[in-house]
Each structure stands twice: as C-alpha cells, then as structure tokens.
C-alpha cells in the first residue's frame, strides 16, 4: 500500500501490519498460532478476559534479565579498566515493591526521589544502604526520614541542602554519605547533545560553584563527600553526550582531589530505547564499553586514580519490558484534504500514558487479538479523555479492518507511563500484571470508583456502597462502573 502523505516522513507503510518489529517488544512477545500477541506465555485475549483493559503488562523475566545483563555489562567493562561500578535503578521510571525486589535480586541499588518512592523501596525490603535519594526540593521531612533510616547516599541538589542534610544527620547521630549534583553544561536528547557553559535548568548546582560547595560539605563532620553526580538527560542514543559530560566532570573531579578524597563519580542515567521501528539505540554493552573507555582515558590523561563509577538507568531496564493493552471502542475515518486518517479510540489514554501529551513522545501499536491480511491503514490511536491532545500513538499503520472490540497493544510502555499516570476525568489507573512462564499475577491492582471517591470528604459512605467493590468475587455495576474481583484476578472497569 502507498505511503499516506499524512504519515510522518520516517513512517513507511509496512508490508505486513501484523509484524512485531524487533527491539520494540518484551523478549517473550510473539504471535500465537491463533494470531494473538502472547507475552510471558499468556495471550492478549486471556489477559483482557482475566484482568480487563486498559492493562499494564510487564514481562517479569525480561525486566529481570535486562537488569542483570546491564549490570553484568557494566561490571565487565569497568573491571576491564580497573575499577567497579554501582548500578542504581531509577525508580521514577516504574516502581512497585515487586519491581524493586526484581532489581535488588539482579544486584542493583535503588534510586528514589521522594518520600513516597523511599517508602515503597523500604516496604519492598530494600536495605536502606542500597538506596540513593535525589530531588531538587527535598522537604525537611524527607531529609529527616532519609537520614533516620540510613539511606546509602543523598544527592545534594542545592547549597541549602548541605546545611539541611548535615543538621538531620547530626540529629540522628550519623554521618551521611552525599554526592553533589552539578550541571556539566551538557544536555542530551536522543541523537543530539548540546554542550554549553551553563545550563538554564532547575537541577544541580553551577559547575564553577562546585569547589566551594564541596569545601562546605567537607567542613561538616556529619557529612561524607562521595563525589560528583550529573544526569545529562533522557532517551539518549549515542555515547558522545556522556563522553563530553564525563570529560568535563573528571576535570572537576581532579580539581576536587587536591582538597580531599573523591572516591566515586555518578554519571546518571538516560540510556535510550526504541519506541518505533526506526529507533536504533546503542546496545547497553556498547554504552558500557564506551563509557569505560572514556573514564579510563580521561583519568589517565589527568594522572588521577580511577573512581568507583555509579550510574542510574531506569527506562532502558523497564521500558521495553512493559506493554499496555487496550480495547478499541470507536473508529472514525477523518478526511484531511485528499487523504484519510483513521482515529482509533481506546479505553484509556493520557491518564495511563501521559508521554505523548507531555513531550510529544512517539509510540507504536499492533492489533493484539488477531492477524489479518487487510491492507494497512494509517491510524492515530486516541484516548477517551476530553482533550484533543489525548493521543497515545500519533501515527502508525494497523490493518485497515481494525474494528470496535479489537484489542490493541502499545509496546515499550514500561517506563514513565504507570509512574506518570493520573486520574484525569476520574478514570481509575489500570492494574499492573506481571507475566512469566504462563503465569500472570496482579502486582498493583487497578483503581476502582470506590478508590476514586475515597478521599472526597463530601461523599457519604452510604452513597458509595455497592459501587466498585473489590471484595472477593463480587460484581457490581452502577453507572457504567463494574468490578469483579477474585483471589488472583482483578477485572475492573471504571471507564
Ligand atoms: C537524576 C536522574 N537519574 C536517572 C534518571 C533516569 O533516566 P532514564 O530512565 O532515562 O535512564 C533520571 C530521569 O529523569 C534522573 O533525573
């Protein structure tokens, strides 16, 4: 079929719109003999029947494997140059107690950036010493709690935090390990990076201010300075931006060594993943090798010892392991000039995937319940919210016979989708189901109307009774709201 002129230039009409492009899907994803997409041994129609839609599905084996392989790649490459590396999982990408445990099982530490994320990590049983605490505006309560439980490191983000963290550490009779987040002036996004002398943004401290701030840290007996931290951005494909930033950081690191020990250097996260068939991110092993080479060369050039390196990837570990399953509700062919675009609306949208509306992120979509040889049609996957920007997939091709009641799946939604989810239009946030070896289990249940009304102080208890109950094997339906809950399956519809 010919290219639809309404499609972006990079998107070509596929020979077969049923194909699952390589690199986009969880490792176990494939089409069954019946044509349904199957993940972790469970087919999309089974998942929809058991748990309802929309549904976040995470391939547990894939997530665990990506975490373990990333760690192994960085361990190997940094051992090659003669140092070690600490890998922190950036929990903001997707955090639940279960996911935190998968990461710890794979030998990773956990990076949190709020009291809430800290509470989840602790509830998961993560040892506080394995936790790094971030944030450009940590509250006094958060700082107090982090020092009280004894988190491994706090990443200081502004001068005032030196005093606040030092005071809290004294209060709790402890010496708190800290890093100082600096702006290296390098900002990267996908294929390009920008190197400036200053960055106009809220995170970290100005590069040139670091020496005096580190001196202030060193003057506090309740603080132990571990080293610098820098995060240059997210969804970065090549190694060049990291190389430029590491080079700048190591010059500052070398300067700081003249005033005392600087045992570590944290290079942040940001490794990119594929969201569409044309995305081609660097393999993790290449990034590890590239970063190790840069650190080795820059340290040798300056004649300084190799620091222990820390990194904080999130998306590259959990992003490709997750998909979102939706049911198609309405289909509207919209004529634009001489061409037509099919608006395919699903039962979720910007409340379960804010990334397209937030920063124009691109995604892909495939029919999940069947294959068909209908010619591909250009579609825009829209949500059900009252916003015209409520788009999940701006442009992709689906078989032209896509119909109401079809299931569709959007790959690579494991990172920054559930964690950015909202209740816009009073939609309940969908459940998260982990699949592996033919088993599926709810690791975060979906929200019911009861949940949505629970904090509204104007609602009397009697008026909510019977609506969206989650008690065992109960079903109710009131004003389009139904919930069925059993021991292991929770099917909820608040849409
Ligand atoms: C300080 C910091 N570290 C790590 C990350 C993780 O980035 P990514 O998920 O792209 O690897 C982020 C993301 O915004 C971040 O702000």
TrEMBL record:
| Pathway assigned in UniProt | Amino-acid biosynthesis; L-lysine biosynthesis via DAP pathway; L-lysine from DL-2,6-diaminopimelate: step 1/1
Gene Ontology biological process = lysine biosynthetic process via diaminopimelate
Orn/DAP/Arg decarboxylase 2 N-terminal domain sequence ranges:
75-318
Q: What Pfam families is this protein classified in?
A: Orn_Arg_deC_N (PF02784)
What are the GO MF terms of this UniProt record?
diaminopimelate decarboxylase activity; pyridoxal phosphate binding
Required co-factors: pyridoxal 5'-phosphate
Ranges annotated as biased composition (Low complexity): 457-486
N-terminal signal peptide: none
Does the UniProt entry include the keyword Cell inner membrane?
A: no
Positions of the catalytic residues? 386 (proton donor)
This enzyme catalyses:
meso-2,6-diaminopimelate + H(+) = L-lysine + CO2
* EC code: 4.1.1.20
Q: Locate the residues binding pyridoxal 5'-phosphate.
A: 270, 312-315, 416
Q: Does the keyword Thylakoid apply?
A: no
Residue numbers spanned by region Disordered: 457-495
Modified-residue entries (N6-(pyridoxal phosphate)lysine), positions: 92
Keywords assigned by UniProt, alphabetized: Amino-acid biosynthesis, Decarboxylase, Lyase, Lysine biosynthesis, Pyridoxal phosphate
Which EC class is this protein assigned?
lyase
InterPro entries to which the protein is assigned, alphabetical: Ala_racemase/Decarboxylase_C, DAP_deCOOHase_LysA, De-COase2_CS, De-COase2_N, De-COase2_pyr-phos_BS, Orn/DAP/Arg_de-COase, PLP-binding_barrel
Enumerate the residues binding substrate.
Answer: 315, 355, 359, 387, 416
Q: Which NCBIfam families match?
A: lysA
Q: How does it assemble?
A: Homodimer.
Main function? Specifically catalyzes the decarboxylation of meso-diaminopimelate (meso-DAP) to L-lysine.
* Annotated family: Belongs to the Orn/Lys/Arg decarboxylase class-II family. LysA subfamily.
Q: What is the name attached to this protein's record? A: Diaminopimelate decarboxylase
Species, as recorded: Cryobacterium arcticum
């Amino acid at each position: 079929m010919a290219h639809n002129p309404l499609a972006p230039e990079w998107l070509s009409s596929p020979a077969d719109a049923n194909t699952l492009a390589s690199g986009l899907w969880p490792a176990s994803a494939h089409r069954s003999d019946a044509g349904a997409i199957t993940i972790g041994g469970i087919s999309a129609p089974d998942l929809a029947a058991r748990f309802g839609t929309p549904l976040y599905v995470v391939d547990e084996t894939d997530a665990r494997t990506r975490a373990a392989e990333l760690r192994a790649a960085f361990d190997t490459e940094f051992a090659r140059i003669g140092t070690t590396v600490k890998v922190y999982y950036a929990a903001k990408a997707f955090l639940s107690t279960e996911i935190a445990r998968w990461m710890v099982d794979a030998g990773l530490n956990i990076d949190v950036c709020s009291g809430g994320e800290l509470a989840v990590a602790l509830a998961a049983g993560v040892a506080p010493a394995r936790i790094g605490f971030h944030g450009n505006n940590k509250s006094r309560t958060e700082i107090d709690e982090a020092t009280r439980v004894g988190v491994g490191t706090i990443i200081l983000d502004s001068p005032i935090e030196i005093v606040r963290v030092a005071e809290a550490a004294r209060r709790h009779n402890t010496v708190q390990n800290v890093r100082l987040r600096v702006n290296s002036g390098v900002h990267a996004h996908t294929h390009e990076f920008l190197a400036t002398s200053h960055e106009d943004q809220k995170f970290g401290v100005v590069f040139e201010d670091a020496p005096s701030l580190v001196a202030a840290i060193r003057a506090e007996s309740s603080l132990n300075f571990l080293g610098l931290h820098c995060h240059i951005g997210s969804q970065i494909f090549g190694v060049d931006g990291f190389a430029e930033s590491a080079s700048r950081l190591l010059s500052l690191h070398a300067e700081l060594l003249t005033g005392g020990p600087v045992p570590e250097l944290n290079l942040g996260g940001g490794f990119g993943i594929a969201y569409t068939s044309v995305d081609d991110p660097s393999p993790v092993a290449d990034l590890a090798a590239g970063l190790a080479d840069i650190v080795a060369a820059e340290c040798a050039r300056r004649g300084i010892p190799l620091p222990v390196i820390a990194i904080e990837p999130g998306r590259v570990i959990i992003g490709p392991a997750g998909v979102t399953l939706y049911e198609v509700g309405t289909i509207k062919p919209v004529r634009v000039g001489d061409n037509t675009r099919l608006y395919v609306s699903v039962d979720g949208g910007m409340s379960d995937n804010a990334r397209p509306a937030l920063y124009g992120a691109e995604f892909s979509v495939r029919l999940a319940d069947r294959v068909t040889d209908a010619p591909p049609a250009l579609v825009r996957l829209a949500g059900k919210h009252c916003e015209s920007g409520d788009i999940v997939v701006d442009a992709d091709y689906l078989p032209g016979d896509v119909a109401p009641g079809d299931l569709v799946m959007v790959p690579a939604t494991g990172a920054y989708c559930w964690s950015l989810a909202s209740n816009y239009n009073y939609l309940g946030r969908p459940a998260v189901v982990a699949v592996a070896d033919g088993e599926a289990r709810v690791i975060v249940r979906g929200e019911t109307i009861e949940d949505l009304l629970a904090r509204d102080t104007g609602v009397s208890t009697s008026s909510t009774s019977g609506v969206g109950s989650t008690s065992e094997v109960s079903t109710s339906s009131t004003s389009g709201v139904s919930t069925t809950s059993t021991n292991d399956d929770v099917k909820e519809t608040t849409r």
